[in-house]
Amino acid sequence: MKSISVNLKSSKYDIDIENGLLDDVGFEIRKIYKGTKIAVVTDENVYKLYGKTVEKSLEKYSFKPHLVILKPGEDSKSIDTLQNLYDNFLEFRLSRTDLIIALGGGVIGDLTGFAAATYLRGIDYVQIPTTLLAQIDSSIGGKVAVNLRQGKNLIGSFYQPKKVIIDPLAIKTLPDEQLKAGISEVIKYACIKDEQFFNYLMEIKTKKDLFNSLEHIIYTCCNIKKEIVEIDEKDNDIRMILNFGHTLAHALEKHFDYKITHGQAVAIGMHYITNKTEELGYTKQGSKYELEKLLENFNINYNLPNVDMEEIREYVLLDKKNMSGNLNLVILRKIGEAFIQSVPAERINLFFS
Ligand SMILES: NC(=O)c1ccc[n+]([C@@H]2O[C@H](COP(=O)([O-])OP(=O)(O)OC[C@H]3O[C@@H](n4cnc5c(N)ncnc54)[C@H](O)[C@@H]3O)[C@@H](O)[C@H]2O)c1
Questions:
Q1: pLDDT per residue as tens digits for the range 40-53
Q2: Which one, of 203, 340, 194, 180, lies nearest residue 273 by Cα?
Q3: Looking at ligand 1, which residue's alpha carbon is closest to its atom 2?
Q4: Fold of domain 2-173
C-alpha cells in the first residue's frame, strides 16, 4: 500500500492508496477508531456500486454503520441536505466521540465534511473518495463547504479528515465525462509542479495504460497537494497555485449554469491563460503547444466556447479570490513551474479580452 502522511499544525493524517482497498475499509478504520457507531454518507450511484462492500467490511470489524443515501449531483450540496444529514445523525444518536464516513465524489466529501465540522461542534470523519477528482483533490486538504442560492461554496470551513482511504479501482466505473474531468486536474498538477510527471502523462496512450498507471498518478497528485497544503493550509498564499486555470473556469461554470463539468472548464481555463501569457511573454514559448498535445491525448476539449468576454470579466472580478481589488492569477513560467501574479482590477483586460 502507498501511504502519504499529511502533517499540519493542527492535525496529522494518512492518505492510504491501494487497488481493492474498499474491501478493507473496516480494517483501516479500526486503526484509528475504537468505537462502534459510524454514519456513512453516500449517494445513490455510489451506494449501488460500493455501498454493500463498505458496509460488509465495516461489520466484519464490529462497527455498526448507519447509511445515509443522498441524491447524486451538485444540488445535494445544499443547506436543505445538510439539515437532512443532521436529522439522520440525531436520530442515530451519533455523539461527538463517534465517526462519520464520506463515501463518494466531491459533492459527498464537501457536504459531509462540513456536516462533520459543525455537528456537535465537530466530530471525526474519514474521506473515502470515489471519483478521480475527489481522490486527487477534494478529499485532501480539509476544504469543506455547501452551496447557497447565491453561489458555490459560500458556507464552509477548513476541517481535516482523520484519514483518507483511496481505492483507484473505483475509478473503473466512472462515466467518461467524469474521468476526463479528473484528468484535467491531474494535468493541472503536472503543469504547476512537476515536468517529469507531465512527460510521464504524455506517454499514456490508451485507457489500459491509464488504468495501469492510476495508482501512481493518484499518489503523485496527492503528494503535490499534501506538500502545498502543509505550507499553506488556509489558502492565503501558495495554495492558490492550485487554482491554475480556475479563474476562467469558475466564470465558465457560472455562465453555463454548472452544466459543464468543473474539470472541462479547468481544461479550457488552463489552455486559455497559457495562450495569453505565452503571447505576453510570461510563459516559455511552446508551453501552450505541449499542453494542447497532452489534453488531446486524453481527448479533452480545450477550445473556448463562444462567450461574451465582457461578461467573463465581470464574473472574474466578482470571484471571491479577488482580494482587495487585485486578482491573483496563476501563470505558468514553463511546464512544471507556476507563479502567482497579482493583477489590479483595471488591468484584467490584458488577460481576459
Ligand atoms: N474541497 C475541495 O478542495 C474541492 C476541490 C475541488 C472540487 N470540489 C468540489 O467537488 C465537487 C465535484 O466533485 P465530483 O466531480 O467528484 O462530483 P460528484 O461528487 O457530483 O460526482 C460525480 C458523479 O459521479 C458519480 N460517482 C461517484 N463515484 C463514482 C464511481 N466510482 N463510479 C460511478 N459513478 C460515480 C456520482 O454519483 C455523481 O453522479 C464540487 O462540488 C466541487 O465544488 C471540492
A1: 999 999 999 999 99
A2: 340
A3: 138
A4: Rossmann fold (3.40.50)
